[in-house]
Amino acid sequence: MSERTRTDWTAVRSIMGRDLLAVRRSKAVLLPMLLVPLLMLVLLPASVGFAANRGGLDPSQFLSFVPNGLAEPIGRYPEHEQVVILVLGYLVALAGDAFAGEKERKTLETLLHLPIRDLDLYIGKLLVGFVPSVAVSWIGFLLFCITANLTAWPTMHRAFMPTLLWAVMILWIAPGVAAVGLGVMVRVSIRVNNTQEAQQLGGAVVLPLVILAVAQTTALLLAGIWPTFLAGCVVWAIAIWLNVRGARSFTRDRMAARL
Amino acid sequence: MGASERVIECEALTRSFPSGMALDALTIDAAPGEVLALLGPNGAGKTTTMRLLNGVLLPDSGTARVLGLDPWRDGEALRRRTGVLTENAGLDERFTALENLQFVGRLRGMSESEARTRGALLEQVDMGHRADVKVQGFSTGQRKRVALARALLHDPELLFLDEPTSGLDPAATRAVVDLIGSLAADHGRTVVLCTHFLGEAGKLANRMAVLFQGRLHAFGTPDDLAAELWSRFEVRLDLGAPASPPLIEALVTLPHVHEATATDRGAIVFTSERDDVPAVVAACVAAGSPVYGVDPRDPNLEDVYFAIEARAAVPA
């Protein structure tokens, strides 16, 4: 009898479903996941827009009312960069838990003794990190677009967001950067013994990626759509290479040998 | 697979880790419906054996067939037919007992309703009343029982149980031991029991494999092992007082008596077999020592185990 070669999506969904249910039940994980995008992509732009619409306040003056530590980041970072940062932030939290969390909870061995293919287990754990991170960032960006259009409506009298360039940035490049981060984080998670270690070590590896991404995306906004799209292709190529390599090197035997 | 075939057959199974040799050329087998105990202290290689036979670890060398399958080529198919209780229960504390069972049920291809129905197994391990309670607050014994129900969820043909009673109180231990016994005796399941509790192995196992530092030092039924290791038969004599030196001398001159030692209330005599006991008693009476009691003692599992351990400690 030979082993299955096709992905068992029921198994993948079951692994994802269990981990996502745990996220949904944990207020400590869920609340920041909802509140941070709400603050960064809705409340902050809305308050700036509202202040500008009132006429009594120049948007640039707004920054003088916020604490010093916050003024600089608010002034410097455009929203698309915040989306990339958000994606990677959630990714570090969720993907860091992928295997390290199982080890910490002592549930990994049980998982290895179940009739799941190594690759299906790996895909399930990848998607647990990827899907919520990208979903939250896309929903956050959608809300940002609605907020921006509503607050700018009195001045512009039309919906101006998202532009094609922003759409490429958020829908193409941000998930690509997330997939690169995922390739790094899941491999870190396999090697360490608990989630905290994974997040600290992964953060140290992923943070430079964030900085690089932020720098590159700012430049790309000036370069036009095609260079942006091509840059996204490069990011996705790196992501695919990293994740395929990760999947190939992931084996039950290696995991069990580390127990 | 025919009834005469072995459920487990492995030959020269070897696996090492960077920390050293975990299993060195293990050759064992198990028949359908048999309880096979893997006995040994921590680090003996019991869990490694279990992981190898269920296709979770790959061997450095050696061969195995489990339920007629190659554990490393057909691992997924094999694991559909085996159930495993790991040493630390491995339940996800974020979920209830029933949710833990349902998750595994889904991964074993059961429908939601089927997994829920099979959740009634929690009743069988006396955990039905806590089915909808989060595992977080469970005692070690409760976790073990839920994990056992989870291992039985898909009615496996072969069960690997790693230290199933460690951390359990005496009542829970007895309940789990009885359950394991009935799984083999009444339901014909083959059970591989990794344990360092000799009483548990003695009560349940048809055969036992004794491992030390990754090497198999003995394999067979407890009686076979005793016969192999125990060339001497122990007799405790109650003489009301320590045996005198002349009596000890008289006893050791008897045919088939290997050794005699005085104790507080008499003597311990080692003979070749049970039939030598009347001659020993007669010698005591002839020497003028009253005999108040004779306690011929067959070797128990502990004697056998520690004899094997002592033999294992002697460098080859």
Which key terms come to mind for this protein?
heterodimer, A: about 260 residues, mainly alpha, 11 helices, about 0% strand, elongated, B: about 325 residues, alpha/beta, Rossmann fold, Alpha-Beta Plaits, 2 domains, six-stranded mixed sheet, four-stranded antiparallel sheet, 12 helices, 13 strands, about 35% helix
What do you see in this structure?
The complex is a heterodimer of chains A (259) and B (316). Chain A has 259 residues and is an all-alpha fold. Chain A has one domain. Helices cover 83% and strands 0% of the residues of chain A. Chain A is built from eleven helices and no strands. The longest helix of chain A has 39 residues, at 118-156. Chain A is elongated and about 65 Å long. The two termini of chain A are 29 Å apart. Chain B has 316 residues and is an alpha/beta fold. Chain B folds into two domains: 8-227, 3-Layer(aba) Sandwich (Rossmann fold), CATH 3.40.50.300; 231-298, Alpha-Beta Plaits, CATH 3.30.70. Chain B has twelve helices and 13 strands. Chain B starts with 7 loop residues before the first strand and ends with a helix. At the A-B interface, helix 1, helix 6 and helix 11 of A face helix 2 and helix 3 of B.
How far is it from the N-terminal to the C-terminal residue of chain A, by CA?
Answer: 29 Å
Oligomeric organization of the protein chains: heterodimer
Helix content of chain A: over 70%
Per DSSP E runs of 2 or more residues, the count of β-strands of chain B stands at: 13
The gyration radius over C-alpha positions of chain A equals 20 Å
Order of helices and strands of chain B: EEEHEHEHHHHEHEHEEHEHEEHEH
